[in-house]
């Protein structure tokens, strides 16, 4: 073959080969320099990235403390709830998986897809929660087929559970995820995103006590997010229990008494001011807040003309009506405008400042002293007394009885009501006070506004012969100061006079006789408020109700050494004597039975 | 076939020693990165090393001129096999590059590298002039194009790019005129743009765009590069220790025992390990390129040079790819990555180099 000589001249190709080798050598050194940069100069950065890659901290949510009634019965409990999550990376067939999981959970494929779409930015191995708040019963079908669905993760975590459903809902409150604004406003608040915190009621007021300390697990995970090793664990600590002054039995009785109406029942322990029952109707089931409402359910609750979310006991503002005659009586006696024996003749109507004013009892009560006027709730007597006292003395007495300011009950959102006076009118409206307005105030109408809890606290003050108490639900040492202010200095005999009237109202054929309980010496006062604001009238029309007056009763028992205070308000209930008094009687009776049993 | 005792004396034992040393480093880190997977990859690799050593022995026993003479037949065989692969092979990881030989599987594209080296050696053995003629250039391009297109069709972009190294190596050695270089570069640009728009699949395009911006697709093709860089970077000076690299042991690193085995070495033995392996490569390549001066004829020079270029190219592309300086193409680290066909090809390439050097004086 030509060219196949042993000593061929290969100088040129060898020179080219050498050049190629040096090029390779240069590139090798370049590569080495790149490795030096990454491994030595940027080592720390990549070490941190490796650490972050494989370490994961998982929160172990702490169960909230329980809420119990005064006898230890559980009002707010925890239960194990299940969440079902999907890990997309473990899916074999996406479409089949969505369909099957949707079917097994009974939520439909569309919901599953929606949840996944919502979190599509999560990394493939991160679980996407597709359903939470599930019962063991709900997850059983999927749990039993875990092998078929490696992408499904079923976790259980403690979840708030209110065993009584809507029982004491307004007292207990409900939980919700805090809004970003709330978190911002409290930078020291140790709340984790997505955590449910107390939004209203006891859950909110005692949130710091009820909340536990979340635990955490530190894990090493592999690239599929599978746990390879646990590197540390801090166990969660359950929050402390809160024991309320509430009596579950009495609360049930109160709610049953209100069922089908709108209104409030408050029962206080006369000795301490502890709330034994606080029912506001209509109500709602706080369990429904736990699993996150749909927008529709929210709208339904917030747009309901009967406002089931409102705690009427502390936020409902009502004219006190004839209940205010207790204030008038005490104010009159205290100022010396009347004595126990001062009589006024009621003919059923009277002319004051040029207007004819009527008593509720058209035939007239005849001659009445103060006790009789309270017993019969005579308007004419108090018109005369009001004209005598003038608005500022009336306002002074009301204020000494706690009206016009918050009682300080340990619930959020309490309203303070309104006690009108000449000073108030000048400041608020820039107008002088007209004497005619005093006449309306004398029978608890006009601009007067009070919450049922204020009326209950006022009744307790009278029952306790002038010693005020602060209504409270939580433990006394944690719920704030014991009383709203100094002892209101009404003379003992003045208080006894008014109490005599209250006793007669119930036990001597007065307006409050519906509240009578044999052998329990109930003292009380009825009230009917004639004011219907235009807004309420509209609400009413929407709800298909006939317009009636609000019906009040507030009283205590027994007359001596009182143990319980009961205040009842039934919206549009008609006359206080006809509607509220029998309801109150039912509560007094139940209290007596329970007390006898224990 | 007997081997002359004089020839045995001329075998480059240092080169063989380096190859074996690197192979054992490979087995160690295949074990480290895949011991928790079923399949005994390190044992299989050991078996492949045995097969490769036997094949190398066979390559040494036969004078390379005989292989050069048979290059044409080998070439036809390879083209037929590649075509058959396209038709019969089942899809593995999205490509049809594997052909089943009973118990073992074989990648004909690896064999194609050897065939092209031999064909080119034969083609260029006759050139005397300091520069390539146009006719020979076109003939060489045509000879490379047939298997190359078949491999691209599989598609196995990694192996296809190694052809660029072989062909480019041959052209460098043979000497291209400036005009030819310009034409080839222009053609490459035109083909490149055309290929980008017409032939490349999306995942292949992404690999290239990822090189420019790895964070743009952290869960896709960028993921490999990011995880690999984390592995290497966290290795530091001395590494995390054998079998203690979290990136590989916890499987964050993809293709740990194959294409990305150098990342495992970087993570578990640190910069010192990287330096050691690169030093081994440098020694090996220095010895291989030096062998060019020991070839007694033009065909030998081409064989040695193309074989060296092939190993050097794969080494450089692999170590630059795993730190994100080159796009992620499926190129293994010769002698170290897991994979029988790739190992065998590297051994045969070295065998050819040793074959040429041991027969520099002989006139058998």
Structural commentary:
The complex is a heterodimer of chains A (598) and B (364). Chain A has 598 residues and is an alpha+beta fold. In chain A, 39% of the residues lie in helices and 18% in strands. Chain A has two domains: 187 residues, Alpha-Beta Complex (Penicillin-binding protein 2a (Domain 2)), CATH 3.90.1310; 333 residues, DD-peptidase/beta-lactamase superfamily (Beta-lactamase), CATH 3.40.710.10. In chain A, strand 11 and strand 12 form a beta hairpin. The N and C termini of chain A lie far apart (124 Å). Chain B has one domain. Chain B is built from 14 helices and two strands. Chain B has a two-stranded antiparallel sheet. The model of chain B has no long low-confidence stretch (mean pLDDT 84). At the A-B interface, helix 1 and helix 2 of A face helix 7, helix 10, helix 12 and helix 13 of B.
């Amino acid at each position: 073959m030509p060219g196949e000589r042993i000593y061929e001249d290969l100088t040129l190709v060898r020179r080219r080969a050498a050049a190629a080798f040096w090029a390779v050598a240069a590139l090798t050194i370049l590569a080495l320099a790149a490795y030096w940069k990454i491994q030595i100069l940027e080592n720390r950065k990549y070490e941190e990235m490796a650490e972050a890659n494989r370490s994961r901290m998982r929160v172990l949510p702490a169960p909230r403390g329980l809420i119990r009634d005064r006898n230890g019965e559980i009002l707010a409990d925890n239960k194990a709830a299940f969440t079902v999550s999907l890990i997309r990376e473990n899916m074999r067939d996406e479409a089949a998986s969505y369909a099957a999981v949707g079917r097994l959970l009974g939520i439909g494929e569309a919901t599953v897809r929606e949840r996944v779409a919502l979190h599509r930015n999560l990394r493939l191995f991160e679980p996407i929660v597709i359903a939470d708040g599930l019962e063991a019963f709900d997850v059983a079908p999927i749990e039993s087929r875990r092998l078929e669905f490696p992408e499904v993760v079923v976790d259980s975590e403690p979840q708030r559970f209110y065993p009584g459903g809507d029982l004491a809902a307004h007292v207990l409150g409900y939980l919700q995820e805090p809004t970003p604004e709330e978190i911002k406003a409290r930078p020291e608040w140790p709340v984790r995103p997505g955590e449910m915190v107390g939004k209203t009621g006891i859950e909110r007021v005692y949130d710091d006590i009820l909340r536990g300390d979340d635990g955490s697990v530190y894990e090493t995970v592999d690239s599929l997010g599978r746990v390879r090793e646990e590197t540390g664990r801090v166990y969660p600590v359950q929050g402390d229990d809160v024991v309320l002054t509430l009596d579950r039995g009495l609360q049930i009785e109160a709610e049953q008494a209100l069922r089908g109406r709108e209104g409030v029942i408050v029962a206080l322990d006369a000795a301490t001011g502890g709330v034994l029952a606080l029912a506001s109707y209509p109500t709602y089931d706080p369990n429904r807040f736990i699993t996150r409402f749909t927008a529709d359910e929210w709208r339904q609750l917030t747009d309901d003309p009967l406002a089931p979310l409102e705690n009427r006991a502390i936020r409902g503002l009502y004219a006190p009506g004839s209940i205010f005659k207790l204030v008038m009586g005490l104010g009159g006696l205290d100022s010396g405008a009347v004595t126990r024996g001062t009589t006024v003749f009621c003919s059923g109507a009277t002319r004051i400042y040029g207007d004819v004013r009527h008593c509720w009892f058209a035939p007239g009560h005849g001659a009445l002293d103060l006790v009789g006027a309270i017993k019969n709730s005579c308007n004419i007597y108090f018109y005369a007394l009001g004209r005598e006292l003038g608005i500022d003395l009336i306002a002074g007495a009301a204020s000494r009885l706690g009206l016009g300011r918050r009682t300080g009950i340990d619930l959020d959102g309490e309203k303070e009501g309104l006690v009108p006076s000449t000073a108030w009118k000048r400041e608020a409206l820039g107008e002088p006070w007209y004497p005619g307005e005093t006449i309306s105030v004398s029978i608890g109408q006009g601009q007067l506004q009070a919450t049922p809890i204020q009326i209950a606290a006022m009744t307790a003050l009278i029952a306790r012969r002038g010693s005020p108490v602060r209504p409270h639900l939580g433990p006394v040492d944690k719920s704030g100061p014991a009383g709203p202010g100094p002892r209101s200095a009404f003379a003992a005999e003045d208080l006894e006079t008014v109490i005599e009237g209250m006793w007669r109202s119930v036990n001597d054929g007065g307006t409050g006789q519906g509240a009578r309980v044999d052998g329990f010496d109930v003292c009380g006062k009825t009230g009917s408020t004639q004011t219907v604001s235009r807004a309420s009238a509209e609400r009413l029309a929407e709800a298909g109700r006939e317009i009636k007056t609000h019906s009040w009763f507030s009283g205590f028992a027994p007359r001596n050494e009182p143990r319980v205070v009961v205040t009842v308000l039934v919206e549009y209930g008609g006359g206080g004597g006809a509607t509220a008094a029998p309801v109150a009687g039912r509560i007094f009776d139940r209290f007596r039975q329970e007390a006898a049993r224990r | 076939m007997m081997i002359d005792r004089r020839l045995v004396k001329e075998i480059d034992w240092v080169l063989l020693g380096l190859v074996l040393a690197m192979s054992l480093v490979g087995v160690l880190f295949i074990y480290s990165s895949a011991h928790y997977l079923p399949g005994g990859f390190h044992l299989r690799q050991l078996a492949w090393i045995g097969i490769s050593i036997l094949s190398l022995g066979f390559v040494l026993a036969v004078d390379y001129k005989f292989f050069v003479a048979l290059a044409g037949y080998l070439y036809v065989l390879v083209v037929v096999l590649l075509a058959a692969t396209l038709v019969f092979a089942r899809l593995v990881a999205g490509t049809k590059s594997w052909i089943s030989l009973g118990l073992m599987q074989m990648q004909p594209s690896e064999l194609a590298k050897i065939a092209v080296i031999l064909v080119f050696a034969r083609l260029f053995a006759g050139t005397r002039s300091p520069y390539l003629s146009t006719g020979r250039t076109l003939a060489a391009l045509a000879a490379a194009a047939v298997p190359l297109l078949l491999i691209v069709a599989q598609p196995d972009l990694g192996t296809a790019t190694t052809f660029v190294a072989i062909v480019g190596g041959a052209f460098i050695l043979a000497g291209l005129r400036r005009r030819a270089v310009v034409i080839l570069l222009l053609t490459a640009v035109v083909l490149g743009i055309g290929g980008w728009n017409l032939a490349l699949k999306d995942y292949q395009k992404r690999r290239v765009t990822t090189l420019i911006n790895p964070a743009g697709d952290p869960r896709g093709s960028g993921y490999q590069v990011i995880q690999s860089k984390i592995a290497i970077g966290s290795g530091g000076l001395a590494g995390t220790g054998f079998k203690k690299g979290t990136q590989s042991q916890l499987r964050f690193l993809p293709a740990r025992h194959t294409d990305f085995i150098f990342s495992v070495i970087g993570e578990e033995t640190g910069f010192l390990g990287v330096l050691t392996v690169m030093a081994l490569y440098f020694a090996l390549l220095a010895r291989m390129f030096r062998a060019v001066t020991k070839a007694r004829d033009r065909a030998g020079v081409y064989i040695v040079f193309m074989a060296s270029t092939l190993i050097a190219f794969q080494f450089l592309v692999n170590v630059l790819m795993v730190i994100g300086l080159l796009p992620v193409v499926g190129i293994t680290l010769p002698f170290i990555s897991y994979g029988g066909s790739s190992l065998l090809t590297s051994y045969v390439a070295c065998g050819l180099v040793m074959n040429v050097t041991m027969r520099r004086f002989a006139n058998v």
